[in-house]
Amino acid sequence: MQKEPLERVRALCLALPEATEKAEGRPAFQMRGKTFAMYMDNHHDDGRVALWCKAAPGAQDVPVRADSERFFVPPYVGPQGWVGMRLDRDIDWEEVGAILVDAYRLQAPKRLAALLDQH
User: Fold this and answer.
1) Pick from 60, 53, 43, 45: nearest CA to 96
2) What's the rounded Cα separation, in Å, for the pair 53 and 76?
3) Which of 13, 40, 56, 110 lies at a 20 to 30 A Cα distance from 83?
4) Under DSSP, is residue 50 helix (H, G, I), strand (E, B) or coil?
5) In what order do the strands lie in the sheet with 27-31?
6) Over the stretch 13-66, which tens digit does the pLDDT of each residue have?
7) 102, 56 in Cβ contact below 8 A?
């Protein structure tokens, strides 16, 4: 498992209010038991280091169509609108952070999501 991208993802996720990490074969980031992101390192030998994030309905198509080299529809959770982002290519960490915040907001209660607006 590559450490550097995971450590950056971990820092971004755990900076969010009440976010926790759960590892069952792979690091998953949750808020009150609801997963908003999963770190995947060569999942089922797909050769990718990637982050899978919850996405708003209809939001999955935009990045996948715009940049299919970096974004993809992940297996299993893709049909629920999740988006995969490769972390083994050029990484824009500000973009990763924004995507993680969006994913978190989809799972967080309004009170916790509102805390993000105060920063």
Assistant:
1) 53
2) 12
3) 110
4) strand
5) 19-23, 27-31, 34-41, 49-53, 83-86, 71-72
6) 999 999 999 988 899 999 999 999 999 998 888 889 999 999 998 899 999 999
7) yes
